[in-house]
Amino acid sequence: MGQEELMSQAEDVADQFLRVTKQYLPHLARLCLISTFLEDGIRMWFQWHEQRDYIEATWSCGYFLATCFVLLNLTGQLGGCVLILSRNFVQYACFGLFGIIALQTVAYSILWDVKFLMRNLALGGGLLLLLAECRSEGKSMFAGVPSMGESSPKQYMQLGGRVLLVLMFMTLLHFDPSFFSILQNMVGTALIILVAIGFKTKLAALTLVIWLLAINVYFNAFWTVPAYKPMHDFLKYDFFQTTSVIGGLLLVVALGPGGVSMDEKKKEW
């Protein structure tokens, strides 16, 4: 069996999966995407005093400003999640969550930690895809109105979202000489390039979803670590951030790569 035939069969399986899950996939994608914000908002509630004391000690900003920071994170994240899941004011919810990402990046000094910064940028990529989906739904309300083609802002949102999402995978690359690590790096790099340039996008994104899901459950199994240990919170944080990126990739699978992609250009050839 040739390489092209194998690829064709894999694409057929992916298409069949999409046909079966078409009605449910966008909902699952959104739920996964907002999971890290939902978990963090709930954590702010249960760790209110610890979070407030940390911000107050780190930034010497006083009790009032530290309390405002925790309150803003709690209400901003939980409120944004509710709006996105209920499909109300999704655009404003996304902008609010962008603001939360930016605020936390500065407040927790993530700006100077390359790994965490790349993961936060990947989260932003997921939100960009959610904004693109929102524009798509808004456009479908005017289905009978003549159009000059797909909205350019939506195309570039999808491109930006795809490119930012692959940053998550760059943090998973292992630079050691073992055969398994080299193979994993080669396959992973090939897949993220395919998603970034928009070639065989749905198949590549679906493969990355399966790969990332396996890695997430295996390496970030926070439920196996007692809650009183610091490692529990670290693994939990990583688990839900990774789940959010999986949600972004599921949106790529559900919506396609958009106009700025090799898949779209192939249709013109």
Automatic annotation (TrEMBL):
UniProt membrane topology term? Multi-pass membrane protein
Keywords of the record, alphabetical order, are: Endoplasmic reticulum, Membrane, Protein transport, Transmembrane, Transmembrane helix, Transport
Q: Which residues cross the membrane?
A: 63-85, 92-111, 179-196, 203-219, 239-260
The UniProt record lists the keyword Transport = yes
Q: Tell me, what's a Pfam family for it? A: SURF4
What processes in GO biological process is this protein linked to?
protein transport
Q: What GO cellular-component annotations does this UniProt entry give?
A: endoplasmic reticulum membrane
The listed locations are: Endoplasmic reticulum membrane
Superkingdom = Eukaryota
Q: Does the keyword Transport apply?
A: yes
Instruction: Give the UniProt family note.
Output: Belongs to the SURF4 family.
The protein here is known as: Surfeit locus protein 4
Lineage in the entry?
A: Eukaryota, Metazoa, Chordata, Craniata, Vertebrata
